[in-house]
Every structure is written in C-alpha cells, then in structure tokens.
Write a structure and sequence with these properties.
- With 424 residues, the chain is an alpha/beta fold.
- The chain folds into two domains: 188 residues, 3-Deoxy-D-manno-octulosonic-acid transferase, N-terminal domain (Rossmann fold, 3-Layer(aba) Sandwich); 181 residues, Glycogen Phosphorylase B (Rossmann fold).
- The protein contains 20 helices and 14 strands.
- Strands 3-2-1-4-5-6-7 form a seven-stranded parallel β-sheet, sandwiched between helices.
- Strand 13, helix 17 and strand 14 form a beta-alpha-beta unit.
- It starts with a helix and ends with a helix.
Length: 424
C-alpha cells in the first residue's frame, strides 16, 4: 500500500512538472522560433497519425528519438529492421524540432511525426492510431504515461544504446520510484557498457543486455561508403593533415597559436567550425597568419598554395576525416566535446579539450592511449608536438583501430535480441 501511495505521489508531481514544462514551451513559442515549431508541429497531429498509420497498411514499428543526435544513434537499428523485413512500416517520432525538421523526409521511415505531450489521454489515442507491434526508445527518452500504456497493452518495448550513471534519479531512493516504474516497462534494455548493466542490476532491473554503442556501426558505415571530396584531396596533396572538427573560438585560438609557434613542415590544417555564420568564418581568417582558402571558393576554382582550408558549409565533416592524419575535436573548452567516433573510424588519433568525461568512448580512448585531453596551451603543445612524430602517431592509430574493431556490432546484437523476443 505504501509503495502504491508513493507511486501516486510521484505521478502527481510528474503531472504537475509536465504541465509547467509544456506551459513554459507554449509561452516561449510567442517569441522563440524553435518553441514555436515545437507547438505548431503538434497541431493536427492526431488527425495526421490516424490517416497515415492505417493498421490495414501493414505492421508498424514505432521508433522514438529525442532529437537528431538520438536519431543517429538509432538509425543503424532502423535501417537493420528495414533490411530484415522491407514490408515493416516505420513510424519515427521526435520530441525536438531540431530532429524533426532535419529528418522529416527521411526515406526509410514511412511516417515521421512529433511525439504528443506525455499525458494518459495522449498515450491512449496515439497507440490506438498507430497500433505498433513493437516500440523502440533511443538512449535517454523516458515518458511515463506512454511507457505505462505500452506495458498495459503488452506491446514489446525496448530501450537501446542506453547509458546509466550513478548520479541519475534511477539510483536515488526514495525519489526513484517513478523512474524504476518506467524502467520496468521495457521488455529489454540494451546498454552500451557493463557499468550500466551493473547499476541497473543493483536496483532490481535484470532484463538488460550489454550491446555496445550503435554509433560505432554508423561511423564505420559512413567511413566505408562516404563519397570522396575531390577539392579536399587536391588541397591536401601529399602533405599530412590535421583536421579540426566542430571547433569553437577557444579551440581555434589555441590551434592557430600552436600552428604559428610550431610551423610544422609538410603539414596542412583543415578547420571545420561548429558554426559557419560569416562572423565565425571571419574570426578564423582574422586569427590566422597562414595562407588560407575557403572551401566554397577552393571547390570552384583552386588557386594559390594555401596551408589552411576553412570549411564554410555543413554536412561533410564525417567525410573530411578520410583525408586526415590527426584530428582535433572542438567543444572541450565549452559544454563538452563533439563526436570523436567519426575520426576514430578512420584511425585518427584525437586531441580535445578537458570536458570529455561524459563520453564513454573518450574516457576509454584516453585510458588506452588513442586520445589526448588538454587543459591549456602547454598541454596542447605537448600532445600535438608528440603526435607529429610518425612512430608515436602510428602507435595511437593502432590503439584507435583496435578499439573500433572491438566495439563494432552493437546493431546486430540489438536486432538479434529484439527479433528473438519477437519470435518468442
């Protein structure tokens, strides 16, 4: 009785918190474009789903992602489902406009929509409209009323690519009652590492499989299939290349300072800033003393002998690393590093700023000797100078390649697990 009372209490708190959260978004929509898209994208959602997700049209699998990053995490599984059974219809939902706006025309999804607000009534009509035979949530998405309704209807529900850390509410009794109730709604939870499995086991969640990180499969596939970039190849020539990806101002300042002091012979630099607004590009051009070219100009008419190529478009970063010998990943002096698996897929040793601890792959590669965190210019100078040495760099490359090889296969492990459950 006491447990039920606590669940009811936390459920009530959850309802109130959600009401405030959604009310805040709707208020923000009056003056914030992203919030406005969040609200307007859900107008007419019920009618659209009822029209598109007709049960007679075939069996549906529902895959939900918070935003674009989670989509990329779940994408290999989605593609694997389609490859195994092309007749399966995929409903792909997003919570955030940043995911929906970019992937609303994704060709392998039969329907792409927003997730309704998490309310008991919304969960009921949503599942009535879609009638999925399976639901897959990616990484960090936990919506209590949707999960509760999925369990009530006995629809197999999976969480994939999950990572659990000791400080999360799941592991903080008595405040974890509702969170544990959500975890118990999943048929199987596929986690990225053994530490996550052990934490879940400690709170009584045992239907857990250590599958690994699906992003590894994705970046390996991109590395294998990525189209060449002739303009970049022409820029690189026979020189060695440091590719600096997703850089911010602090990253650029340190890198260009190092380059100016070291002047490494037979090396060229490619900078792909995180933001490519004119002011961001101008910041780089004003900071450098190197002869440079903008990619947009160089692609049209290569001229001169630049030592720095500035990428002033989006969508090609993962393919740039093909031309590198060494990578610097930005963000580590701000909120946190960006994707280091993309350069790792090409075997590039990686240097980045101090904020990397939230990323399992970064911690592992630092420990193994394939990645090198730096806190200041002195440490950056030490790391990059050492990596100019061919032997040192090749040693780090071997570590990276071995790590990638040993951590592939998460997608197949997840697919084998959910299809085995389906047959069972």
């Amino acid at each position: 009785m006491q447990k039920k009372s606590l669940i009811y209490l936390f459920e009530t708190i959850y309802r109130i918190a959600l009401w405030g959260y959604f009310a805040g978004i709707k208020t923000a929509a009056l003056f914030h474009p992203k919030a406005r898209k969040w609200v307007s994208g859900r107008v007419g959602l019920r009618g659209r789903l009822s029209a598109q997700c007709v049960p007679a049209a075939g069996k549906w699998i529902w895959i939900h992602c918070a935003s674009l990053g989670e989509f990329e995490q779940g994408r290999p599984v989605l593609e694997g489902i389609k490859a195994r059974d092309p007749d399966t219809r995929i409903l792909l939902t997003f919570f955030s406009p940043s995911g929906y706006e970019i992937r609303k025309d994704y060709p392998l999804a039969d329907c792409v929509e927003y997730l309704p607000e998490d309310r008991p009534s919304s969960a009921a009509w949503f599942l009535d409209a879609v009638r999925p035979e399976m639901a897959i949530f990616v990484k960090y998405e936990f919506w209590y009323f949707f999960l509760r309704e999925l369990r009530r209807r006995r629809i197999p529900t999976y969480l994939i690519s999950a990572v659990f850390r000791s400080g999360q509410l799941f592991f903080r009794p008595p405040f974890n009652r509702l969170h544990l109730a959500m975890l118990r709604c999943f048929s199987v939870i596929f986690v990225q590492n053994e530490a996550s499995r052990e934490r879940l086991s400690g709170v009584g969640i045992h239907r857990v499989v250590v599958a690994g990180d699906t992003r590894m499969d994705r970046v390996v596939e991109i590395a294998r299939k990525g189209a060449p970039l002739p303009a970049v190849s022409a820029f690189c020539g026979s020189d060695k290349v440091l590719v600096a990806g997703s850089t911010w101002a602090k990253d650029v300042e340190l890198l260009l300072r190092w380059w100016g002091s070291k002047k490494p012979e037979d090396w060229k630099l490619i900078i792909a800033p995180h933001n490519i607004q004119p002011a961001d590009i101008q910041f780089i051009t004003q900071k450098t003393t190197l002869p440079y070219a903008l990619y947009s100009d160089w692609e049209k008419a290569p001229a001169g002998a630049p030592r720095l190529l500035i990428i002033d478009n989006i969508g090609m970063l993962s393919r740039l690393y093909r031309y590198g010998d060494l990578a610097y990943i930005g963000g580590g002096f701000g909120a946190g590093i960006h994707n280091i698996l993309e350069p790792a897929a090409f075997g590039l040793p990686v240097v980045f700023g101090p904020k990397y601890q939230k990323f399992e792959e970064a911690r592992s590669l630092v420990r193994l000797g394939g990645a090198f965190p730096v806190k200041n210019f002195a440490e950056l100078n030490h790391a990059l100078t050492n990596l100019l040495d061919e032997t040192t760099r090749q040693r780090a490359t071997s570590v990276i390649r071995r790590y990638v090889h040993e951590n592939k296969g998460a997608t197949e492990r997840i697919l084998a697990g959910i299809f085995a459950e389906k047959k069972g």
